[in-house]
Design goal:
Distance between the termini of chain B: 48 Å
Number of helices of chain B: 14
Structural class of chain B: alpha/beta
Structural class of chain A: alpha+beta
Distance between the termini of chain A: 22 Å
Shape of chain A: globular
Strand order of the largest sheet of chain A: 3-2-1-4
Number of strands of chain A: 4
CATH topology of chain A: Sufe protein. Chain: A
Oligomer: heterodimer
CATH topology of the largest domain in chain B: Aspartate Aminotransferase, domain 2
Helix content of chain B: 40-55%
Strand content of chain A: 15-25%
Largest sheet of chain B: 7 strands, mixed
Amino acid sequence: MSGLLALYQDIILDHNRSPRNFRKLAHTSHEARGFNPLCGDKMTLYLEVEDQCIRDVGFEGSGCASSTASASLMTERLKGMTLEEAGRLFHEVHHYLTQPPDTPPSRASTLGKLEALGGVRQYPARVKCATLAWHTLEAALHNRLEPVTTELEPDADR
Amino acid sequence: MATWIQAKKTLDLKHQMELARNDFPILGQLIHGKPLVYLDNAATTQKPNAVIRADTAYYETQNANVHRGVHSLSEVATSLYEDARKTVAEFLNAASPSEIVFTRSTTESINLVAHVMGRTQIGAGDEIILTELEHHSNIVPWQLLCERTGARLKIIPILESGDLNLEAATPLFGPHTRMLAVTHVSNALGTVNNLAPLIALAHEQGALVLVDGAQAVPHLAVDVQALDCDFYVFSGHKIYGPTGIGVLYGKRSWLDRLPPWQGGGDMITMVSFQKTTYADPPHKFEAGTPPIAQAIGLAEALRYVTGLGYPAIQAYEENLELYALRRLLEIPGIQLIGQPLKRASIISFVMTGIHPHDIGTVLDQYGIAVRAGHHCAMPLMEHYQVPATVRASFAFYNTHEEVDSLAQALDQTWSLFHP
């Protein structure tokens, strides 16, 4: 699958149209904000963590299809995960999205649906759109309050 | 009969601009297998052969440093560089070439003025008036100036149409007003500002006026004496010239009075460790080796544009713009951002449920180059409550067929996101 079809797979368009968990939580224990100054994408991520386990998750913000779908798919997956599992998932997704296009997921991959995010890899300028939610998650896991910006680490996403 | 003459005129214009298009070698290429449709002219324009050749000829046969050698090549380079200044002066109808300072860009020209004004003319409690339409480059230098001096910014708001709200502007001017910095044409909406009443208001208070002409000069004839602004700035690369060259026009009386900006060679008459005396304008503001090839290339670009003629350029571009507006409004989900009374070849829009960056990416697959983003005008995006817009910006070398390609590709984009 190449080009636009890979970038805008049905699942991406669906999550862009109807993002899941697009809401503020009543009880938030972890919160972080992400910002992509290049395109103006913004998001706030809310986690409700109890006994090291993510009970609920929500997000708000505005961004392109890749950034919205990435955040939506991420929140779906996070529910029920331990903080440690969420940290591992961040690394796995980040590694996958910063590989050259067409690199298949590893054999031990736990990506599942998240593989659909890989379409951005053919569009170097758009990789940051898909990684924004994940960098924001990483900040939330470490309770870092200052907003994450994708531009502070130019090498992280190529 | 009259309509027949009108139709014939339109055809002649189309033919003239089709021929002109052939002067731009870059426009013939394919992007993703499709003919390039370049609609990002407000970001930068493409260069005609005449400009590319002038650059090559300079480096092949004329290159030397200016204002210092007694050898022949230096004299050639110096006279070409100073001739370029004359060309710019005529282009803007400045009173004298000494009112033209070459800089690196519009941004550098504004920073120069803001800096030297801050050293002698603006202090704590003074007010600088900007507008909601400004590009970041006509906001941030003044903010930096305010931080240094304790001066304050006041902002002229816009109406929903994207025109300046002149009624709300009037009470902003007062005895503390020292400066008005205003764009001639909005880079994000295309609004052509009616400058005369604002300049009059500023001058009534004894304030100076800087006009950012970066988006104006490619589309309309500018006469700085008729405008009566104190400073007018623009960039070479947005008017079919090279990158790395900007222009600062300043009234001679002000250039005489203001202190120099950067220090260095070329801007002095006499240096000793005790005291340095500065050169007269414009050289007082041109420290170091200037962008020589770029100035010569800019002069060539200005000759090219005036050769085509502003009446022809304006008539053709207005026709193309109207056609584009009509075609865009046929597309489902399109909402124009700003509908100014007068616009200069820039159309900003959003589509329901599709982020501008996604539109930009899809259009690129069809070979169409547009800008998607905040256009370095975040306060303006804030006003319209949009994170970004898609901006299609036209030049005389764009065609009606290219507008059709844009419309078709936008239709496809809509279908992709709204199956």
